[in-house]
Amino acid sequence: MHAARLLVGQQPENRKIGLTPQQKKYLRGLAHHIKPVVMVAGKGLTDNVLHEIDLALLHHELIKVRLRVSPAEQTQFSERILTASNAERIHTVGQILVLYRRNADDPKLSLPG
């Protein structure tokens, strides 16, 4: 697995955008009602799982990922997901990681401010 490789939908010029606390609060509110679209469990964080996360971010922009692993692995996997997907961590609670990545070609969400 190479974390630096480009995934589906990523452009080389894409960089993490700095979200304001108000924008993160807004996204947390939107995420409250969505269900996890990807689950990381026994087989770990494979290239296929990273690809599915990337596709979900491309289509939805705001997603939840369930990390059904030990707390130590949750931290490690979260960092790998953030690096590989170029997404922003919006919130983490228990086993749930909320991610946001704006789709530059077809934005789905309009952020305040």
Report on the structure:
There is one protein chain. The protein has 113 residues and is of the alpha+beta class. The chain has a domain of 66 residues: YhbY-like (Translation Initiation Factor IF3, 2-Layer Sandwich). Helix content is 35%, strand content 18%. It has a four-stranded mixed sheet with strand order 1-2-4-3, with helices on both faces. Strand 3 and strand 4 form a beta hairpin. The N terminus is likely disordered.
What CATH first level of the domain at 35-100 would be assigned? Alpha Beta
- Name the CATH architecture of the domain at 35-100: 2-Layer Sandwich
Helix content: 25-40%
Mean pLDDT: 88
Q: Are there runs of 5+ residues with pLDDT below 50, and where?
A: 1-7, 9-15
- What name does the CATH topology of the domain at 35-100 carry? Translation Initiation Factor IF3
End-to-end CA span: 37 Å
Strand content: 15-25%
Shape: globular
- Helices and strands, in order, run as HEHEHEE
The CATH superfamily of the domain at 35-100 appears as: YhbY-like
- Spatial strand sequence of the major β-sheet: 1-2-4-3
Tell me about the biggest sheet? 4 strands, mixed
Enumerate how many helices there are, as a single number. 3
Tags for this entry?
single chain, 113 residues, alpha+beta, 18% strand, disordered N terminus
In a nutshell, what does this entry contain?
Helix content is 35%, strand content 18%. By secondary structure, it is of the alpha+beta class.
Which SSEs are present, and which pair or pack?
Blueprint: H1 21-31, E1 38-40, H2 47-60, E2 62-67, H3 71-85, E3 88-93, E4 96-100
Parallel strand pairs: 1-2
Antiparallel strand pairs: 2-4, 3-4
